[in-house]
Amino acid sequence: MAIYLGLSFLLRLTILTKKLNVSFEIPFNIILGLILGPFKGAFLAILADTLNLLITSSIATWMIEYAIIPPFTAILSWLLFYIYQLKNKLSFITIFSIFIITISTLIIIYFSEVINGANQVKIENLSKDIRQIFTKELVLILIISFSSISLIILISFSILYFKTKKEIYYLIIFIFSVVLTIVILLRWLWGPYAFIKYYNRFIGIKNNKLREINQYFYFYLTPIILKGLITIPIYCVFLISLTPILIKLKKRYDTNNYDSYHKIKSTYY
């Protein structure tokens, strides 16, 4: 947890956070769910998030809309890890189904906005020339293209795994699916709603300019998606590199606890 808090502070000073909004809270909470399970992982995710707010003097801006993201990330990652450990056809079908349902939901939601409105989506932190390029139609094309590429990647590594039975291919499938599912659900779809709530509670109320969710949801969704296309590969590389080591440490920890339990049991019984 100390490493996470230190990284979180240092990243605030880098271009990754200032321009691309790259936060390592998501992969950190995924790791907590993988290693500690749903209950301990969720508890430590809440604790780390709260400590981070205290250290950065942001505790006054605590909101339930944001506070539920860390524990939900840990729980969802644990659930997908449980499916991953089954290593059978059902686990593959489940992982693919979750991915397809999640990405289809995003496409349907964004497609409905393209049909209902033809206004360009503005991206505040980009230049005016670039803003004019990223219309809703183009962003929808990017989403569909990204989804297609993601599906091709999952299918390709699935074929490689079934042909070679190498564990690394199965791990890549798992990590890629976990990151995509969590980022799309909690960052892309839930993120705009949470931010509008934050804006109205701490900014809009001061100048009496509250923002309606149905009017500003896509205004914030579009830049989040565009930045997410950069952060998702970063998260995947980070977790693919780190997860095998953590899984080995977890197995060693579980084995030591199991041996210790039986030693104590044999002593008293």
Automatic annotation (TrEMBL):
Entry coiled-coil feature ranges: none
TM segments? 26-47, 59-84, 90-112, 138-162, 168-196, 217-247
For this UniProt record, give its keywords in alphabetical order, as a comma-separated list.
Membrane, Transmembrane, Transmembrane helix
**Domain of life assignment:** Bacteria
Q: What is the name attached to this protein's record?
A: ECF transporter S component
What species is given as this protein's source? Mesomycoplasma lagogenitalium
Q: What is the lineage of its organism?
A: Bacteria, Bacillati, Mycoplasmatota, Mycoplasmoidales, Metamycoplasmataceae
